[in-house]
Design brief:
The protein is of the alpha+beta class and about 110 residues long. It has helices at about 10-15, 60-85, 90-100, and strands spanning about 15-25, 40-45, 55-60. It has a three-stranded antiparallel sheet with strand order 1-2-3. The longest helix is centred in the middle third of the chain and has 27 residues, at about 60-85. It has one domain (about 5-105). Bound molecules: zinc ion. Zinc ion (ZN) binds near residues 30 and 32.
């Protein structure tokens, strides 16, 4: 199972996926040519509004914090989704109220690149 398969596109879209990668450098005599790959190199993947996948590298010193942040996000997201599932009527009512409350203050929607 690849790391990609463990994360839904939904999660990717909302905060990105923090994943470790292992690479071959290509030098024929290197240990990686015998299967001992270099890494882990950590990256954050995310999708933009158009669905394109982006990647940015995460410094080694920041990898553990990034993984922890993502775990926390996923747990909070699960709680939120469970709440929505169990209270969808109330949730929809609240969402409508919030929309009405913020509507007068909203800027017109941006079009094109930001
Ligand atoms: Zn190598």
């Amino acid at each position: 199972m690849s790391a990609r398969e463990t994360l839904s596109d939904r999660t990717l879209h909302k905060m990105g996926a923090v994943l470790a990668g292992f690479v071959r450098c290509g030098k024929p005599n290197c240990r990686c040519a015998r299967g001992q790959l270099h890494g882990p190199y950590w990256s954050r993947y995310w999708r933009d509004a158009a669905g394109r996948l982006h990647r940015s590298y995460i410094r080694k010193a920041e990898a553990a914090a990034a993984v922890k942040d993502q775990q926390r996000f996923r747990e909070a997201d699960q709680v939120f989704r469970a709440f929505k599932r169990d209270n969808w009527r109330e949730f929809r009512r609240m969402r409508e109220e919030i929309r009405k409350m913020v509507a007068p203050y909203q800027l017109p929607k941006q079009r094109g690149n930001r």
